[in-house]
Amino acid sequence: MRLDKFLSEVGLGSRTEVKALLKKKQIMVNGKVKTSPKSQIDETRDQVTYQGQELSYEKYVYYLLNKPKGVISATDDPKHRTVLDLLDDRARQKEVFPVGRLDKDTHGLLLLTNNGQLAYAMLSPKKHVDKVYEAEISGLMTDQDVKIFADGIKLSDHDCQPALLSIISSDETSQTCCVQITIREGKFHQVKRMVAACGKEVTDLKRLSMGPLVLDEHLALGLYRSLTSEELESLQIFGVEL
Ligand code: URA
């Protein structure tokens, strides 16, 4: 890869900033000063140093984001703020993207990575990755709805696989309830449409988990962190290079 791209990706600064460092002869590759941003390096083998300190390269990065409402799960959009606008420059250098989508008004766990194979595996219907949501509902969900979810709801364009509906709390006075819903698919507005099929409405939707990854409740809305080594290890079930 190009040396200036490498230096940016390891966090030394923007392309312009790293060009200045190169010009000042502060970067060495395998013991030789390099000044050209276009120099090609093998990031897996070459030893690159900045002021004598070795720079190590991470091929893949993984960020656990607590997505707030109001941003969209895309990498760019002409009108709206995207989840990438929540990242700092260094994280953005890695060209990450969201693994799957949450609606603009949904909040909670979203994984961002630049590992395309992992994203493909986590989103593959064949892998049956459980997604758990907590939903506030206008209307009272019933044991009959639990059965309707378990039997598999037929939407206009899709026959849903059996899903788990657990009623957490119900308030007769306000005719509202809180539920947990586990689905293994990720069709457009799926949870909202499944609830609507039972004649009720989702008023708030939060994703709690996706496969082995669980929302970190210490992560404020809009913030993100790298996966821990345990979380990364848990992704080995997908059988791809991490
Ligand atoms: N189901 C929905 O309806 N919306 C989401 O954002 C995720 C699942």
Description of the molecule:
The chain is of the alpha+beta class and 242 residues long. It is elongated. It contains seven helices and 15 strands. The two termini are 20 Å apart. The model has no long low-confidence stretch (mean pLDDT 96). The site of uracil has 8 residues, from helix 6. Uracil binds next to helix 6.
Please outline what is shown here:
With 242 residues, the chain is an alpha+beta fold.
Task: Count every helix, treating DSSP H or I runs of 4 or more residues as helices.
Answer: 7
State the CATH architecture of the largest domain.
2-Layer Sandwich
Total number of strands: 15
Give the overall shape.
Answer: elongated
Span between N and C termini? 20 Å
Number of domains: 3
Q: In this structure, how is the largest beta sheet organized? A: 9 strands, mixed
Q: Which whole number gives the mean pLDDT?
A: 96
Bound molecules: uracil
Instruction: State the helicity in percent bands.
Output: 10-25%
Question: What is the highest CATH level, the class of the largest domain?
Answer: Alpha Beta
Radius of gyration: 22 Å
Going by CATH, the homologous superfamily of the largest domain would be: Pseudouridine synthase I, catalytic domain, N-terminal subdomain
CATH topology-level fold name of the largest domain: Alpha-Beta Plaits
Strand percent estimate: 25-35%
Structural class: alpha+beta
Element order, helices and strands? HHEEEEEHEEHEHEEEEHEEEH
Poorly predicted segments? none
Protein name: Pseudouridine synthase
Domain RNA-binding S4: 1-64
EC number: 5.4.99.-
GO molecular function: isomerase activity
